[in-house]
Amino acid sequence: MNTNKRLIAIAVALAWLLASRADAAFMMRLSLASGPTATITDGGAGDNIPGTSGDINYINTALGSLSVDFTAKSKPTILPPANHESLTGVTINNSGTTAETLLVEIVDNGFAPTGASFVQMSVATIINPTGAASVDYFGFVDAGNTDSFSTGTSYYAGTYSGNSSAFTGFAPTPALPTFSMGLTAIIRLAAGTQVQISEDILITPNPSGGPLTPEPASMAMWGFGLVGLVALRRMRRKV
To answer: Does the pTM of the predicted model rise above 0.70?
Structure first.
């Protein structure tokens, strides 16, 4: 009898552990090429509204010579039926005397399984003064359901340097098991530059049953932008 109770207790504990790993905490990471890094977990240190699940609020915070304001949202703050993640209310000021490059990443896993679906990604950028910064954007979907940053298939990528620009893109995806999603931005700022951005990724049903592969043009942009992502990480390793 005691042995059976122990086995039941172990089974319950394992089920709880697996469930916890399947829906790990929503996270954001900020990394400067010059060295400083900040990782903020939903509800953890640095989150200004720790009582709201799925909402990271990182406001008026210094990172090197940068002053950063970020709001990142995921489930359950953004409710179904869509699987949805966003960076909103983002403002970065470079008050230093030299240019800076900031890598911004968010990731969350445990999104609900879907049938054939579309990835939709929207981006808006405001740069002041015009042309003094550029932003590379990436949207990731990972069928492996990892909670790792910048991991999975990137269906969209783009680079923006104008004063105001926006796009919305669509790409079909295969049927997904439980999965993770992430957003990544590489922001290059000249001294005295301010950048405001918003980035949004969501997955909605695909009733058309169309081809389930990323568009070639999108993959080409992703390959071009990935060079910048790899270069930034190499720069940080040398610091």
So the answer is: yes
